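Today's session is about reading a structure prediction critically. Students often jump straight to the picture, but the first step is always the sequence itself: look for stretches that repeat, for charged clusters, for runs of hydrophobic residues. Only then move on to the predicted structure, which in these notes is written as discrete structure tokens rather than atom positions. Here is the chain we will use throughout the hour.
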Amino acid sequence: MVFKPETNTVIAPSSSDSALQNQQSVSTVASVSDTNQQVLKFHGVMPELAPSLRGTEVNCPLQVDTKGQLVLSRGIRDCFDYFLSSIGEKTESSIVADIRQYLAGLLPTTAQPYSYQLLGKYIDYLHQREKLPAAQSNSAKDFKTVASAMVKLRRQIFTPQEADVFFAQEESYDQYTIAQYAINNDKRLSTDQKAEKSAALLNEQPEDLKASMQPILQYNQLQELTTEINQRGGSASELYEMRKKLVGAAAADRLTQVDLQESQWQKKVDSYLAARAQITASQQDAVQQQAAINELRNRSFSSPEERIRAQTFEQMQANSNKKVAE
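Below is the predicted structure for this chain, in token form.
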């Protein structure tokens, strides 16, 4: 979630390779699909980038219309964020100067004033955001209060259209996360009901958010609800029904198969570790014990990958035994 403001640590900028960077000529082409918008090419002197940005592609997909006016887009904020990501390597004032220099080399003079105005607003917003109070508790109500304050601040500094273009996606994500948090912490709901409500909530999201976030959101929710069911000793059928409601029957079937394979693997590992423990407890010398363990491992696991994985479990068991002994 976008609740915690970023902490900007300012240190002196590096001056290494400055002569080379100042002479660097960079071409940046905006990604445009509208034939009424112009492709932009950088034609100025590239500012000296912070070390972490050198060698990277400048993320400034800006656009102008046929009259040479700046087209309001999320790409403008992405451009600001690209340069501002080097806070800590360069001072804020240096970075702002770099952005203005880059905009001057990329945009026609007709588009520059609005870009500078948006930059000033964005810097003001970042400063004001630092002053917003953090959530007082891990409750959906407190998170909602903080998110509402953020939305209000953005529309105090930007016009409604500018705020929507710059922040719509993360505001949608914040609203989704708050609603999901409320579902997860509603003790009145069963696990199946949580899965059903979670799936419905995800389907209600804007298409761009759903397309970009669906896999990770579903994975996180699956992990949380699976842990909840396992911790209270829920049945396999309950686990399956939760998964089916959250990700569909086909995916639930695949996950059940994965569970079966993992269970079979764990039984094999447990049997192997028990036999290995008998060898290490025998009266054989160390060389004989290691030879017997190698033979046991090769006999128990058919592929090199399985044997390597088994050795990981051996190390985990050894570490566990060491802690018990201490």
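Discussion point for the tutorial: The chain has three domains: 18-130, 140-231, 264-325.
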